[in-house]
Write a structure and sequence with these properties.
homodimer; alpha/beta; Rossmann fold; Dihydrodipicolinate Reductase, domain 2; Alpha-Beta Plaits; 3 domains; 10-stranded mixed β-sheet; 6-stranded parallel β-sheet; 14 helices; 18 strands; elongated
């Protein structure tokens, strides 16, 4: 690789502009660590004049990122637009085809088109790096590809969405509702002001799970949509009850090999307050990995925001500048295996069930009878009357049962007029 | 790099023999991930016929590791003898001079001769890799050199000695004495049967601190012996009292820049039972790193034993096989800075002080008066009488004071006949 490296940054949102500032501030350190000098020769964004946190040289601004390739000689391109398709995909494709290394934090793009783009990078003998796409500043992808490379990984899971974790933590801390805390998160920049849906419905965490699975198990990125639930239906009441039970609600992303089949899921879990994962709070992310022979490894750090994201983007840059041409997914794309999916019906958990019921004789016994009919046995039951409104809250912690069984059992309750809303289900993480 | 790679393993203790077995078992996976085939062509140990956990091919055995170089063409050598000098140093030197890549878990060697050996490796354009020398299976060195490469690191600290952490945890769990738990640790293979001293007096953790400092701050490895204390003087009584105070004793290694000066230390700390670090128990290690812009990053995993160590040794192997020629300390040896040391006298902590005294009037006031004279103010005081023996235990938690002040103050107590043993001091970690 030559000594002087030309860089383009496409997308100047929160992350792009922070990255640009870091690239300008850390030239000397980058030269010290790699022997290369970098120059940003092109930037691109929708709006040239939008108010941004840091200034940039308007002379190298391009409105259409696809025109950069004609006007400038680029060696490395950062894609920070963030779409799963459209212009994001087009820019990355064009760069790779032009033998330009690409670095991106775009989990939507990688989880959808990662295999295709990896092949394109390999064919053109350039790097496609995406450390920042999973768990912000935590070097988890590099750790799987390199630091733990020869371990047989069986499971990788954790808290992968900082926005959701922040909201759950703050609901507990402030004793406040989901919608109020969401507003606060949006004001602080933790949740998208316009559309926080992808954070809250589990989609964002699921994209990260897909990328982690592929790296951990050397498999093609799965397209199979297994069990995906976000935190959008968690009520303050559930957090309060969990608290009384010494539990805490966490949104976990889980990827696991069960009988050599891939099981990927994202859903809220009740975890012990005493557990490690139960104490990863606020915008922190944590990834736990079970490997042989290394045992259990834990990596924790800030999972979102331009600082941690830039830390990972620059680590990708250094890797390229040091001349490490690597397979994007650790092994050649052609060697990635296709893998069968574990049937979610067989997924087994203890359940937290909350029923809001009319306070009438026989309601409780109807519930317990139905659970018994489906062989769901009860570990703990708490009934709290609300005399004033002639209602009661029944919380049941069950012994372990399959997903199929609980779905079938709970569907029946929906028809019962004495049960005032759909029973709330949160799985316990063992 | 050519396709077929010859490997030598020198040292067939617990780690060497496990590594050898892993190398034999993971050939296919290594080929998948690197495109290279490996062959172990030489092994060496003191005793050919010692009983070992795994078998090896005696035909490639060499009694004197220095003769390997004459008889076999070696590309990569693993040094797993573990001495800071002598044959360990000689073998590594000889290998590097012969343009053979070296991988070692030997923290004693690297913390003492790392800069010299790194220069030797750089001059000969080969790798010297030592991921396994710090925190076992945790890919902490690689994370600092690569995953977090452009962060400005201010502090790195953690639990770096699995043996000490195991002993402290078990003293609490089993309510048993230091010496009994040490025997158990030795029986389980966590502590050296012969000489566990280097684990228990803090030396092992200090060697790791030195390596971490160098990587985190891009400085030459320090030779300065700052404050080093192990766990050998921790008594069950201190653990019990800590427990009552909702604290836990942990041996921490700390490396920090204070006013641009390097402060390195290893000593037992009292940490909150609710803190993250207070819940890293047993043989687990944890490293916490404070960097900008990444924020606080935590890496946790098994810190000792042949499994985790082999995981790191093989990650080094893959790095070399993938053709990543890298500076052993992240930047060229000539670019590593020398750095001044922070004066330990200015180190500030709250203190736990335990006095065993004669139960006589005036003893307590003498202690508190002396503390007052040194302007050490008291935050909490617990006096527990032992009427039967006419003794009392006085535990004092102080507000923050300097190391110099506490040393001067405590030295006086040693002369007091009413104070029955040297006051016990454990620093509180803020």
């Amino acid at each position: 690789m030559k000594k002087n490296i030309n860089i383009a940054v496409v997308g100047l949102g929160q992350i792009g502009i922070y990255l640009l500032n870091e690239l300008n501030n850390k030239k000397k350190e980058i030269e010290l660590k790699t022997g290369k000098t970098i120059t940003v020769v092109a930037v691109s964004a929708k709006n040239r004049n939008k108010k941004r946190k840091f200034k940039f040289d308007k002379k190298i601004f391009f409105e259409n990122p696809l025109t950069i390739f004609k006007h400038q000689k680029i060696d490395i391109l950062f894609e920070a637009i963030g779409l799963s398709d459209g212009i994001s995909k087009k820019v990355v494709e064009t760069a790779l085809k032009n033998k330009i290394h690409v670095i991106t934090p775009n989990k939507a793009l990688i989880s959808k088109h990662g295999n295709y783009l990896a092949k394109l990078a390999e064919d053109n003998k350039v790097n496609l790096e995406f450390e920042a796409s999973v768990a912000g500043g935590i070097p988890i992808l590099r750790s799987i590809k390199e630091g733990l490379a020869t371990n047989k990984i069986n499971k990788v899971y954790g808290i992968l969405n900082g926005t959701s974790n922040y909201i759950l933590s703050e609901m507990e801390n402030l004793n406040d509702s989901f919608s109020n805390v969401l507003k606060k998160a949006q004001a602080l920049g933790y949740a998208e002001p316009g559309n926080p849906k992808l954070d809250l419905n589990g989609f964002d965490a699921f994209a990260k799970v897909r990328i982690l699975s592929s790296l951990a198990f050397n498999t093609k990125i799965s397209k199979y949509k297994c069990l995906m639930e976000g935190i959008e239906n968690i009520e303050l009441k559930d957090i309060e009850i969990a608290n009384q039970l010494n539990l805490r609600v966490k949104l976990l992303g889980i990827s696991e090999l069960i009988n050599n089949k891939l099981f990927e899921t994202v859903h809220p879990c009740l975890v012990s307050k005493k557990s490690y994962i139960g104490n990863v709070n606020g915008v922190m992310n944590a990834v736990i990995l079970e490997g042989k022979p290394v045992g259990e490894s834990v990596l924790q750090g800030e999972g979102a925001g331009p600082g941690p994201t830039s830390s990972s983007l620059l680590s990708d840059l250094l890797s390229i500048l040091r001349g490490n041409i690597k397979k994007p997914f650790g092994v050649a794309n052609s060697k990635l295996k296709k893998i069968k999916h574990y049937n979610v019906n067989n997924y087994v958990n203890s359940l937290y069930l909350r029923f809001e019921v009319k306070d009438k004789p026989g309601v409780l016994s109807k519930i317990t009878n139905r659970l018994a009919k489906f062989r769901i046995s009860i570990k703990q039951l708490i009934q709290t009357p609300d005399k004033k409104n002639n209602k009661a809250t029944i919380v049941i912690i069950t012994h372990k049962t399959t997903e199929q069984n609980s779905t079938n059992c709970l569907s029946i309750f929906k028809k019962d007029k004495n049960i005032l809303q759909s029973p709330k289900l949160i799985r316990l993480y063992n």
